[in-house]
Amino acid sequence: MQRETLSQNVNETIEPLLDSQGVELVELQLQQHKGRWLVRIFVDSDIGISLEDCRRLNFEIGQLIDAEDVIPASYVLEVSSPGLDRPLRNMRDFRRQKQRVVKVFLHVPHLDKAQYTGRVAGVTESHLLLQTDSDTPVTIPFQSIDRGVVELEFK
Question: For 80, which DSSP code?
Fold first, then answer.
């Protein structure tokens, strides 16, 4: 089975379970090694993901994948949170980081810059409002953003 097809099948199978529990699928990774699949599922929620959440979801997802016979070979399943260095890719990701410092990488330069660092001051349907070192916040269109990352602050 091709990786793309398998990925789509796993995604379609687990999305309803994740949605029903208020959990977002951040990333699905599939790797094949010696005839066995490694299935890595990264999940998050508005309140975060605990180790207990990962353990429970691993069990429930494994049961579902087995019941639906989604993976036709032996596999290893890992469910994890994306961690602190999770890439921020969409409006919801940035909205969760309100008042935190983020670094934003652009695939289309905005005001002659390809990256910005600042505090998330606001998020609209189409723009990210970033408070940088200057007095005036920078408004960046989401269509220009490739990704962002949270910058750790030490106080």
Answer: E
Phi, psi of 92 (to 5 degrees): -65, -40
pTM of the shown model: 0.71
Residues 117, 39: Cα–Cα separation, whole Å: 34
Residue 15's SS3 state is: helix
Contact 40, 29 (CB under 8 A): yes
User: How far is 105 from 130, CA to CA, in rounded Å?
Assistant: 13
List residues bridging with 96 in a β-sheet. Answer: none
Do 1 and 72 form a contact (C-beta atoms < 8 A)?
yes
Per-residue confidence (pLDDT) for residue 103, from 0 to 100: 95
The strand pairing partners of 123, in sequence order, are 128
- Averages of pLDDT over runs of 10 residues in the chain (155 residues) are 88 96 92 90 89 97 96 93 83 88 94 94 94 89 93 83
Q: What is residue 147's three-state secondary structure?
A: strand
Phi, psi of 28 (to 5 degrees): -125, 120
- The domains found in the chain, sorted by start residue, are 3-80 (3.30.300.70), 91-150 (2.30.30.100)
